[in-house]
Amino acid sequence: MASSTVENYLKHILLLSEDAPDGGLVPMGTLADALAVVPGTVTTMVKMLAAEGLAVHRAREGVRLTPAGRKLALNVLRKHRLVETFLVQVLKMDWTEVHAEAEQLEHAISDRVLDRLDALLGHPAADPHGDPIPSRSGVLENPVYATLATCPLGTSLQVTRVTDQSGDFLQFVVQHGLTPGSALEVAERDLPAGIVRLRRPGRREITLSLAAAAKISVTRRK
Amino acid sequence: MASSTVENYLKHILLLSEDAPDGGLVPMGTLADALAVVPGTVTTMVKMLAAEGLAVHRAREGVRLTPAGRKLALNVLRKHRLVETFLVQVLKMDWTEVHAEAEQLEHAISDRVLDRLDALLGHPAADPHGDPIPSRSGVLENPVYATLATCPLGTSLQVTRVTDQSGDFLQFVVQHGLTPGSALEVAERDLPAGIVRLRRPGRREITLSLAAAAKISVTRRK
DNA sequence: GCCGCTATTTTGATTAGTCAAATTAGTTTT
DNA sequence: AAAACTAATTTGACTAATCAAAATAGCGGC
Would you tell me which residues 44-103 of chain A have a C-beta closer than 8 angstroms to some C-beta of chain B? Predict the structure, then answer.
């Protein structure tokens, strides 16, 4: 069975390859940063993953998962996101603190427990941050949402996903009522100034940076 | 923070010292068996625990927990038993398979999750095997129950605790309706033959060895 | 008081995962 | 094309946890 270190490598390669243009090739340095580890360590470990048939190492270019590696990674991600959902919906834990908990639990829960949890929660499609939960069979829906940095102005929108798990940012999101499901519209976007102004029903307007806006995904409100 | 290896050592020392006469001194060999590790390893690790102030090592005699070590051990045990309770009561998992799951989870769940779990379950006093759950403040009730090997004959009893976590034994217990809560009485005990015969309402009589009988605790049925 | 048995301790090696620092390969710049 | 820069790789060392096997300490028996 894969150690939790290996599981973490696989999970992060999967996550990073999502938004890697290079045919999903993740550069070693990027992976090192994500894992909070020195680049030399990543090289060593990735070679080991390659020897196990879980990843392909292209020297000096980066790493990509094999089908076997991807399957394991998806299972870890599924555990992570179902655990987060459980912590919020059943244990009523704070939206902003569950990420760290799930980081530990994802390596400790068995597939059997995973299935029960999934059933208990009614087979949810997304976790509390709006991140899609891979299916049991290993399919990861990854709809390309517009973000507050790219969506059309003046249309009625709702938040679907918050793609930054840092406590600080989530705190901010909760504070200003931008959690998944909230209604809003973009009043103004000033690219040179790098800001986006939001209008929400029954709340004050707020302004945030383009960088922050890009981390909040939205869809048209039905 | 204590590694899960350390947590395991502490937990097993606590468990073994319960039924150690020697003022709670656990012999190294016993601990080695419990941890499925070679005796030399235990010596090394116990010395390290002693250096950390978690245990007292009496050379060639055994090991005992310090108050600090006991506190940690109780917390691990609390996690273990609450997780087991959760797995059975909320996730409806099989009584006989939850021990192994909890063995992993006890090292991954935070104190915060622990508290929520405890609240969700209504602060239970015992896990599904009837083993007492240490309180948050670190008190472990350990009522001395009679067992089927020692209780009076012919009195109406009920099972309170099954003190063997092996799958085989638990399987047997379920099969014959001896789970905590079940009613029964001891019809006969033949010490020379080493057997105990049980009578249960609405079920066939069964006979088991004294060794097996000693693992099932009972109280008088109200 | 010596002998031998058993439990414990020592010693030396091993594995997984890591870091620091030196080296190398590729890419830009000039 | 050489120089300079950046990212990746190698190398050597370290820690936690383990095992195998040799050494030792206490003990009971005679």
Answer: 87, 90-93, 97, 101
